[in-house]
Automatic annotation (TrEMBL):
Its main location: membrane. The chain crosses the membrane at residues 28-54, 75-95. Residues 1-21 form the signal peptide. GO terms for cellular component: endomembrane system; lysosomal membrane. This is Lysosomal-associated transmembrane protein 4B. It is found in: Endomembrane system. It is a multi-pass membrane protein. It comes from the Eukaryota. Keywords: Membrane, Signal, Transmembrane, Transmembrane helix. It comes from Balearica regulorum gibbericeps (East African grey crowned-crane).
Length: 96
């Protein structure tokens, strides 16, 4: 919980810096936000590649879930599930 709070506060600070930098036209204030965006894009790309290379990890992850919809998701064809996840990640990367 503390780590999530710290990351959220850091993101608020970075976004505030980017907003201030854009308003005052100071490019140096926008650099941390730009670096975060590059890091986030790279991380999402690595997730997409790992889903392509190791599609069985999705099934392993689903087995660890403790939700009431676990059986419904596990009943989906694994290939279809991989395609759905890759489509979702591709849409996210396209927006970024």
């Amino acid at each position: 919980m503390c780590i999530a709070t710290a990351i959220s506060l850091l993101m608020i600070l970075i976004c505030a810096m980017a907003t201030y930098g854009a308003y005052k036209q100071h490019a140096a204030w926008i650099i941390p936000f730009f670096c975060y965006q590059i890091f986030d894009f790279a991380l999402n790309t690595l997730v997409a590649i790992s889903v392509l290379v190791y599609p069985s990890t999705i099934q392993d992850y689903l087995r660890q879930l403790v939700t009431h919809q676990k059986e419904e998701i596990m009943s989906v064809n694994p290939t279809c599930l991989v395609v759905i996840i890759l489509l979702f990640i591709s849409i996210i990367l396209a927006f970024k």
